Amino acid sequence: MGAWGHDLFQSDHDLDMVSEMTHDAGLYKLEEEAIAKAKAAGESDAEKQIYYNLYGPSHPDVVRHHLDSGVLVDLIEKKKAKMLAPPNRLDFLRDPCYEYVLLGACAMGLGCTLPSDYLNMLKKVYTEGGLMSGALMQMRKALFGPDGFTNGVPYDFESKDLIETANSMHDEDRQPGASGFVSLNVIGPGGFFNTGMGDSSTSTIIKELRAQHAKPDACGGCGVKAQQSGAALLQCAKCKNRRYCSSTCQKKHWKVHKRVCDPTLY
Ligand SMILES: [Zn+2]
Ligand SMILES: [Zn+2]
Question: ipTM above 0.95?
Answer without folding.
Answer: yes
